[in-house]
Please model this.
Amino acid sequence: MKVKKYTAPTMPEVMKQVRKELGSDAVILNSKEVYQGGVFGLFKKRKIEVLAAVDPQPEKPKKTPPQPSLADIKFERTSQKTNDSINNDKVIEEVRELRRWMEKNTSKQQHHFPSSYQAVYDLLIDKEVDGKLAYDLIETVMEYPSSNKQEISYEDIKGLLRKEIKNRLGKQSFHQIDYSKKFVHLVGPTGVGKTTTIAKIAANSMLKDKKKVALITTDTYRIAAIEQLKTYSKILDIPLEIAYSIEDYRQAREKFKDYDLVLVDTAGRNFRDPKYIADLGKVVDLTHDIDTYLVLSLTTRATDLEEIFTQFKNIPIKQLIFTKKDETTTFGAILNLCLLHNKGVAYVTHGQDVPDDIVETTVDYISTLIVGE
Model:
């Protein structure tokens, strides 16, 4: 990794130097204010010092000499260990896949429902609905009035299941951003599409609801993420503030206090840091001052989404937003998180087009995703 220190009078000038020398893939390791120059300790000028880094391109492997030296032999042994490690990782992943397959198929076989009910139960398992939840849903549906449980059709059972899912989802909130809170944070892991989702919400708020919208980003770890949001702010003609610290964030909030909606893009790691939560809590009331939405990708396994959800337990999540619907046919995780954690869903996104590829969800929409038309 190439690490270098840069100094300039302002943060934008420092970032310009970083991009010029290290490129847009550079990451910011640290930033602080320093004072330089002056005479006898007086008249020093304030500057911004940034420590940035980038991974260099891997070097091409050298040809092995005809007569290997002791160093070459050590290198070969190390390479062999690396290859063995890679092979072991592949074996471990194959074992995990096998275990997941066995768990899914075992869960299908361990319950002896009438054939039509069993087929619908298998459908839920294939959608990655939690096994216990799927079993409970089918058990409940079997209690619905019917002339003959053995003869009821597959499609009729799906209709009853859709009704039961809607009944249970009806207890959750499925409201979109209603502007009751001026500041809205989007949190979630890196790479799930938070920035693009923010652009879609911002555009719809402006075009449909005629609201005055502004953007703040605290995701200063990746320069590419800042550039992406800058592009959206220029296209939508809305202001953007970059917060490199809690103080910057406080100033940005003050600057945008007269706006109808301020959308905040956050770094994928910040909200897992108790210190960050404590510092932010000194600036805003996380319970009453802002709304926070957790953004998750539907391409992530249901079990992994459950783990990610628990990593954000330190903050009050109002609702969920799911992305990348167009990249999968497995939607059971939506039902799992909604019913097992009492959370509603505000939006589901299904592409990169701004502002079109976003849906304001309803219980009908979610139940259809799980069961089908």
Remarks:
- The longest helix spans residues 70-109.
- DSSP finds twelve helices and eleven strands in the chain.
- The chain has a mean pLDDT of 81.
- Residues 79 and 85 are 10 Å apart (CA to CA).
